[in-house]
Amino acid sequence: MGDGTIMTMDGKDVLIVGGLGPMGSSTAHYCIYQGASVTIADNRAPLYGANDFNMRDLEGKFELMVGDIREEQFVDHVVGEPASNHGR
Predict the structure, then answer these.
(1) What are phi and psi of 12, to 5 degrees?
(2) How many percent of the chain have pLDDT more than 90?
(3) Domain assignment present for 2
(4) Alpha-carbon distance 63 to 20, whole Å?
């Protein structure tokens, strides 16, 4: 990408694990502003930096799935549902 080409995320689906924390929310903001459809998976644990305020300004522009990625059923739900929507 060093040739001056600007990357676009229009039409891309992006899953961000820990998207309510400082790094995840910054990544989510960038992806949304670039046109991606963003899903955030987060367990809302304040100990790890989760804070709804980090995404308040983009409310309604992303999907939030609350759960713990250490639980297999949650991962199946988070990854399986979007994948099946795209024929995978």
Answers:
(1) -85, 145
(2) 68
(3) no
(4) 12
